[in-house]
Amino acid sequence: LYARFWTKALRDAGVLELEEPFRKLRHQGMLLAQPGWTIESDLQVDSQGSARVIATEGVDAYDAPGAAQSYRHYPLDAKFDLTGARSDREGVSLVEFRATKMSKSWRNVVTPDEVAATVGGDALRVYTLFMGPFDRTLPWSEQGLAGVSRWLGRVWNLVLGQTVRESERRQDMSTDVEVKLRRRLHQLVRRVGEDIDALKFNTMVAALMEFTNFLIEIDDEDIRTSKAWQEALETFLILLAPSAVFMAEELWERLGHTRSVHEQEWPAWDANVAADETFTLVVQVNGKVRERIEASTAIDEMQARRLALASPRVQAHLQGLEVHKVFYRQGRLINLVVR
Questions:
Q1: What pTM does this model have?
Q2: Cα distances (Å, whole numbers) of residue 154 to 119, 123, 232, 298
Q3: Domain identity same for 255 and 286
């Protein structure tokens, strides 16, 4: 909080030569209490829409009027800022409350110790990174936390499922699936590195989640015996380690490594390996999207034009018209201007 003050004080004392403690300072956003719904009869509401829990046993909060389970229990004297919205559930009136600043006086604070005791420190850390841009003010979500916890569970099962002895592992990486796996892995290394540098931690986690889904999709007995699979798991754990510190370390050790995952060199990516062989060519007619075609990344404008004109969907919009101009953006789209 006082980094600039102490830096300047130490400079004046001759201890430091620095003028500023950092080249750029970016603050994280504020975390708000989760919005939701609760039972109106358990509240005392004033004319401004502020409410206080008067039920001795406290109240349950729900993320929607029809939700079967509550996401949190609020104690006596907890406070809410009501939106004015109401809903009836089996004769019980529920009122909606806003996301508000966490405060001890409002008794709506989520403490890290409570969360870590329930889902673990890794799930807490990953969820706070995944919530959204780190400099935004965002509401807490128990559902979002549970989703991250489930994802970490899938990662655990994926890495430890059907382990293969090194003597059984194939050394070649020539099958189509293995080539695709290496391409996706190098794309992941590139994206995670770029997102960390740009402080886009939410999209970094999203990339790790997408790669997990891809691994689950291609997972079978044959791919698990490949060197590509082993490389993918080990690289993935190194990329995961800054976020899920403890789980990545445990899984790394269970894969047979003795040196900490946090002491490994950051993976490098190869632009040639990461390059896609195909892309989705968007075809527009007079600026409106009419078709999407899977095409080779090597095609030029004439080849893209032939592909577009060969599509029955595109032809349906060209009846009686002539192509006057063609605008082509390599690797993205082609726009046919007709009249």
A1: 0.81
A2: 14, 12, 16, 37
A3: no
